[in-house]
Design a protein that fits this description.
3-stranded antiparallel sheet; 8-stranded antiparallel beta barrel; homodimer; 14 strands; alpha+beta; disordered N terminus
């Protein structure tokens, strides 16, 4: 019985049981099955130039711990992304460490001596200060802007797209996008999870997303101090802090680290915590043995089918489809290219 | 700068900046500050008889790993909870193991030989088979039942309560309860996170909740195989599987375990995975050195203030309150009693 717990994701479709409420007529395969069967044309190459490779020191058993981060594309967070490229090119993080692991919240890395003006490692030249405004973007395409507030038309367009993805005829499924506690709507665009309100669009704090540590506002952080989400999506941080990317490989090396016992989960050597050393952080151009990656194209039919199945589980393990899903429960599938 | 990242939770309230949109007039302290200042009368003792104590083998550095689980009260899942009490009383889990750790999903424990009819450990006598109907409950109080479908009146009552908690005059705050992708409404009741629809009420799969592994339906599991949520809330499991409690202490010992490399994150010794041994699982009555625990009473003013602050962060770190929150982002504070 053990191996079948929560097995739905890997099983084939079964006939629809008569007593189930029908979000869709007919059978549905599981999300994982849809992804496994998606044609090559429904996958989109991830640009190697957007990848950052973080190597932690090997684990206690000597195994390497490599983490691959995909940086956000325009129009999101490009000031910070540019800083991060400069920091990586300067090998700035080499020999620094994971400094904080707070359970159900974040793993954070940077300079353990960052607060000590004497010991802190100097930042490379040319980093920019990015204003708070850039926590959000205003429109995917400037031609969509139709009024002073920017984006009423865009918003309508996106909500229509949401209807297309989750089904116009199904009010329960539409809750998938409409029933968000933090924004008017959420959507997947260009391979990313986004939220939308008042004509503004922003990336959201889902599991594995990478963001920029900062001081009190109006400080927005440089990008030298980064964190990734290792628990339930802390969406209250959306629009309050810059997101710059997501972990697409090696997430377990961040999420399974020992938790810190200092304030806010910072590692406290006085309490027996040991910081986890960073060997290096490199732009992919400097890394020889990196595989290629693809994401399931969020504009293609396979993704729409996958998202619908995440909202309406019809595979044999489930007796009751939820009829909805939140944006962070529809992660964008990413795979290594063989 | 490092120690101030995401520091909001521990800071005192600051004057409301003029440019912020006003979900509430005036200043708000952080959620953690509200909890820290809650009067003793706003805390509620957790019944020691509802506690289960799971001791994993010590970690690589020899530190003990104790996990404390609080079992769900009536009217939820009492068939499985009864089985779990019997299994613990029989010391059934002693010497078994954590068998699965799937990143951003679940840590699961039970009998590694459970699928082997010869090697599987025999279950104690007297376990009951619980029907699928009991994944949900119908009303908090039978006197509230007002029609054949059970609960239209209850639902109204609960939505009114939601209004009371999050504020009648604030449509954005009400999204906290109304904007749920998986149910008509969510709420906190008697110290637990619940969802509601069509007159039915059920516990939800938030981080740290404990559920019952099962075979394909109509099997509902005995309670011998358990899991806890270690990632973003997999709410699609709600109403499809029994929840029986939550981890109130030692969660990090479950969430930071190495991930499994077999199918669905099961530990696969052939791939170098090592299962984590369980020393014992005991009802609290058999444990001598267990502290007492309290939760922040979800019926009291401090909790309402805390929940509101989770939805509307006004502490100095934040520049933009979300104006809403999902039920799993409002965990019920639990503390050891000194």
């Amino acid at each position: 019985m053990r191996k079948t717990l929560l097995l739905a994701a890997l099983l084939t479709a079964a006939p629809l049981a008569a007593q189930l409420p029908p979000p869709k007529p007919g059978d549905l395969p599981s999300p994982a099955e849809i992804v496994a069967k998606a044609p090559k044309a429904d996958w989109h190459a991830i640009d190697r130039n957007d990848l950052l490779v973080l190597d932690l020191a090997p684990d206690a058993r000597g195994k390497p711990r490599r983490v691959v981060i995909q940086l956000l594309p325009p129009p999101f967070s490009q000031g910070w992304v540019g800083n991060i490229r400069k920091l990586a090119a300067a090998h700035w993080w080499d020999g620094l460490a994971v400094v904080r692991v707070q359970d159900n919240y974040v793993t954070q890395w940077g300079d353990p001596d960052g607060e000590d003006k004497v010991k802190a490692r100097a930042l490379p030249k040319g980093l920019v200060e990015v204003p708070q405004d850039e926590y959000v973007a205003y429109a995917f395409d400037p031609s969509l802007i139709d009024d002073e507030r920017y984006g009423a038309k865009t918003e309508k367009l996106i909500l229509e797209r949401a209807d297309q993805v989750f089904g116009r005829d199904n009010s329960k499924s539409r809750r998938a996008f409409r029933g968000d506690a933090y924004a008017a709507a959420t959507l997947h665009w260009n391979g990313w999870q986004l939220a939308l309100e008042d004509g503004k669009i922003w990336p959201v704090h889902c599991y594995g997303m990478v963001g920029v540590g900062r001081d009190m506002p109006p400080n927005t952080g440089t990008g030298a101090e980064l964190y990734t989400v290792i628990g339930h999506a802390p969406r209250q941080l959306d629009r309050n802090i810059a997101l710059v990317g997501r972990i697409i490989d090696g997430m377990e090396h961040m999420s399974s680290l020992p938790r810190g016992h200092g304030e806010l989960g910072f590692y406290d050597p006085a309490k027996g915590d040991e910081r986890v050393p960073i060997l290096s952080v490199r732009l992919a151009a400097e890394v020889k043995d990196l595989p290629a990656y693809e994401y399931l194209d969020t504009e293609k039919a396979s993704f729409a089918k996958y998202a619908d199945a995440r909202a309406n589980r019809r595979d044999p393990f489930y007796i009751r489809p939820a009829g909805g899903v939140d944006v962070c429960n529809v992660p964008v599938p990413v795979r290594r290219v063989q």
